[in-house]
TrEMBL record:
This is PepSY-like domain-containing protein. It comes from Niabella yanshanensis. Gene3D superfamilies: 3.10.450.360. Residues 53-139 form the Putative beta-lactamase-inhibitor-like PepSY-like domain. It holds the Pfam family PepSY_like. InterPro entries: PepSY-like.
Length: 144
């Protein structure tokens, strides 16, 4: 349940306690942990958000956001994701519940072992912002 609440906060952008942090003020254990996990990260911007260090960066043309605790442990992360690579279960769920809708702005979210997919679904003038588990279960549906 805690994971779902955190992900809903991610989806809605309700993290209001973010404070930008200059790289020189980020503990080396945090920077080293990020570099070990994402050695090709470029243009890293740091924030302190609800007690976690948040790094926003790019690898190639793909955007990432990761949250690390004070020991450098990766707590959760999200990345831009290619809609063509959505798991079959998510594609089936879209077809079943949102037939005729096209996904866009897809993001892959991960917290621990839990993987989620956040996206916009559009059909004509109708739009939804949705969150699915990797197994195709719809967790959130916001009509836009």
């Amino acid at each position: 349940m805690r994971t779902i609440i955190l992900l809903i906060l991610l989806v809605t952008g309700s993290y209001l306690n973010a404070q930008e942090v200059q790289s020189k003020n980020v503990p080396s254990i945090i920077i080293n942990a990020l570099q070990l996990k994402f050695p090709k990260a470029t243009d890293v911007v740091w924030e302190l958000e609800n007690g976690l260090y948040k790094a926003e960066f790019e690898i190639g043309r793909q955007e990432f956001e990761v949250w690390l605790d004070h020991s450098g442990k990766l707590k959760r992360w999200k990345q831009d994701f290619d809609k063509e690579k959505l798991p079959g279960a998510v594609q089936s769920a879209i077809k079943k519940s949102f037939d005729g809708f096209a996904p866009s702005s897809v993001e892959r979210l991960q917290e621990g072992r839990n993987v989620f997919y956040k996206m916009r679904l559009t059909k004509a003038k109708e739009k939804h912002k949705v969150l699915f588990t990797e197994h195709g279960k719809l967790l959130s549906n916001q009509v836009l």
